[in-house]
Amino acid sequence: MQLDNLPASLRQALGQIRLVAFDVDGILTDGRLNFLADGREVKSFHTLDGLGIKLLHRCGIETAIITGRRSSQVEQRAEALGITYLRQGREDKLTALYELWQNSPHNADCTAYIGDDLPDLSAIRTCAFGASVPNGHPLVRQEADWCTQAPGGMGAAREFCELILAAQGKLNAIYDEYR
């Protein structure tokens, strides 16, 4: 876990996280858009990421998906994982976050966000902790507080979830349940 490499201020920020927001394409998927012959979109989600999200929920941390595209597959995945807030068709991620914060007990100080491209940049800059992935846009990676080792769609969200749980002192207890 890369927790030891983070400055104390960022470890402290991670300790206060109560809401984790995820972009979809490039974070929960590998970012490629796949279409069937009839025009229907097909997305692939990684099971590692799904369990990471469920572990956040077990520890009392709510989750959100904020995505620029609309997809019934994202809706189904969000429902299957128990995602608390789903915002689709939202190119302006920060505006979507402000709306979410207005209608929830959360704010920027207790929110972590992970995204990979320019529409995610304002959210990454505003939240208490912003992250990206190694295959994200260079400017986004540069502005993020932290970058996963795994690429988007290949366990990056899980890595992000575990970083938060480790900072909150909850990850080892979770691991112990599986030993």
Count of beta strands: 8
Mean pLDDT: 94
Estimate the helix proportion, in percent: 40-55%
Structural class: alpha/beta
Shape: globular
Relative strand content: 5-15%
Order of helices and strands: HEEEHEHEHEHEHEHH
Report how far the terminal alpha carbons are from each other.
Answer: 18 Å
Characterize the biggest β-sheet.
6 strands, parallel
Radius of gyration from CA coordinates: 15 Å
Identify the strand order in the major beta sheet.
Answer: 5-4-1-6-7-8
Helical run tally: 8
Low-pLDDT residue spans: none
Task: Write up what this structure looks like.
It is a single chain. With 179 residues, this protein is α/β, with parallel strands linked by helices. The chain contains eight helices and eight strands. The protein has helices at 8-15, 47-58, 72-81, 93-102, 121-126, 138-143, 156-167, 171-178, and strands at residues 19-22, 34-35, 41-42, 62-66, 85-87, 111-114, 129-132, 146-147. The chain has a six-stranded parallel β-sheet with strand order 5-4-1-6-7-8, sandwiched between helices. A two-stranded antiparallel ribbon has the order 2-3. A hairpin with a 5-residue loop joins strand 2 and strand 3 (41-42). Helix 2 packs parallel to helix 7 (156-167). It is globular and about 50 Å long. The two termini are 18 Å apart. 42% of the residues are buried. The mean pLDDT is 94.
List the helices and strands and how they pair.
Elements: H1 8-15, E1 19-22, E2 34-35, E3 41-42, H2 47-58, E4 62-66, H3 72-81, E5 85-87, H4 93-102, E6 111-114, H5 121-126, E7 129-132, H6 138-143, E8 146-147, H7 156-167, H8 171-178
Helix pairs in contact: 1-7, 2-7
